[in-house]
Amino acid sequence: MVMRRILGTTLLVPALLLAAGGCGSDEGVTAVGDPAAPEVIVVSGTAAGGEVADRVTALDDEAAIATYADRFRGPLAGNIERAAQAVDVPAGTRLVAAVVAVGCDVPPGVDVAGRGEDATFVPEQVRSPRQECFAPVTTVALAAVPQDGGE
User: Quick one: pLDDT at residue 43?
Assistant: First the structure.
């Protein structure tokens, strides 16, 4: 099952926004979602490190969130922690995260497929990608996805 996230229904999460810097408005936190599907929060930061992940990482508690966030440089680490705390994790779901892009652009949206630790995030393609940037932007997606074996 694929749950579609549409950028047109973007919610700003004011408490999580970063000050602009590096690559301008590409840095920050955006909650992207459709009201009928679980919330996906996209967090990005310039020159924060990381590599695009094929698999999600479960963020089951504060220690797991801190360990995941600590792999990134600069303000992205703290923004990931705050974003994880802001996600509503209903019963029967599990908070997961993954790096979905590292490059000059932040994807306009993210699709989520699968359940639990088998879930994957698929970033939407950027319509007009930049050819050059001062430093790459790391984009991390977080969402509460259905647990394995549940509906």
Answer: 96
- Residue 47 domain-assigned (yes or no): yes
Partners of 115 in the β-ladder: none
What is the domain extent for residue 10? Answer: 2-146
Per DSSP (E only), the strands in 15-131 are 28-32, 40-46, 57-58, 93-103, 110-113, 120-123
Beta bridge partners of 106: none
The Cα–Cα gap between 44 and 146 comes to 24
Q: Into how many domains does the chain fold?
A: 1
Predicted TM-score (pTM) of the model is 0.75
Q: Does 151 fall in a domain?
A: no
79 within domain boundaries: yes
Residue with more model confidence, 99 or 115: 99
CA distance linking residue 13 with residue 10, whole number of Å? 9
Q: What is the pLDDT of residues 113-148, one digit of tens each?
A: 888 889 999 999 988 878 888 899 999 999 999 987
Residue 130, domain member (yes or no) = yes
